[in-house]
Amino acid sequence: MACGCCEREAPLQLSTKAGYVAHMGRIYLSPPHMGTDEITLLRDAFESNWIAPLGPHVDAFERELAAAVGVEHAAALSSGTAGLHLGLLIAGVQPGDRVVTSSLTFAATANAITYAGAVPVFVDVDPRTWTLDPDAVAEAMDAVDTQGHRVGALISVDLYGQLCDYAALQAVCRARDVPLVEDAAEALGSHSSEGAAGSFGDMAVFSFNGNKIITTSGGGMLVARDAAVTERARFLATQARDPAPHYQHSTIGFNYRMSNLLAAVGRGQLRVLQDRVAARRRNRDAYREGLSDLPGITFLEDPPGVHTNAWLTCITVEPEAFGADREAIRLHLEADDIESRPVWKPMHLQPVFEDCEMFGGSVSESLFAKGLCLPSGSSLTDGDLQRIVTRFRTVSR
Ligand SMILES: *Cc1c(COP(=O)(O)O)cnc(C)c1O
Questions:
Q1: What DSSP character marks residue 255?
Q2: pLDDT at 51
Q3: What is the number of domains present in the chain?
Q4: Residue 24, pLDDT above cutoff 90
Q5: What spacing in Å lies between the alpha carbon of 369 and ligand 1's midpoint?
């Protein structure tokens, strides 16, 4: 019998006292969830022999994703990390520049800064939204300026599907003439009345890694209003080949384009994006329903006026009030084959970035200490959610 969450064999089905069927298969944090069109589109790519990089599905995926986000242009790439790297280069980041970003993010954000030869400068987050604190961003930029360095760019991070305070961040960037690169890797499908995730930066990046809300198994997209940005991205992503019949190069390029096969999968996934957002928001509702009476448990909520994709349901656990810490909960879930994960470990606490500067308070540290991401896949069943909630409630405290 196939397991709904992970598509693997589920060896046992047990009826429990609670009257629901608990399968004993592993529940993953955020597994891939294919719709029905992906395989048809993939077969079309095979049958048309557009196996080689690029092809009609890449062009169509770019058009369709740009339309979904409400921006004019998109360039399909091999990963979100590649998109961040190219985005920084296209924004004009030079070796030695400082690039300001959130400390609370996945390492890819900070790694891309180093690929461009720049130095990350980390900033703390707002405790309500878990996204960049605009005052601390301004403070960091002014400090970099005082040190005699150049701020090459700001990378805002739409963490766990949240939207940053873009009115404030755009004002901070505009006042200092700093390009804004939006890392929307986790936020495809989130929107406010001001626009969708990916429409706020001078350019923005999405990821289709296996754990994201839609996946091509691996892939990314750079989007922008300005066609020059995505044209430059396509040029750099295909080894920067000059327009000449022979192979001629006058700048260093990369092999960063998305394959036509994966773009076919991405097109199918994009067709079910709205369902995936709805499912992830339902997961969060179910957890809220099942857990919010517990003392010391707080949910990460949508910022005011924002409809997030609820990519991962995140909670914080106050150990004194709850009677156990997030690690005790994580291990208790893990012992029942339920995968949960601590909130991202802040970049300024990572050994590899320990020499980088950090501005603002210690909110990201506290969120790392107390934060837990619960299983959030869009294929979770009501039974899965009930199993997770029931297990959560039996942690010893
Ligand atoms: C997933 C992710 C990335 C990187 O995307 P890849 O496609 O895995 O390279 C970048 N930033 C954030 C915040 C992410 O979550």
A1: B
A2: 85
A3: 2
A4: no
A5: 22
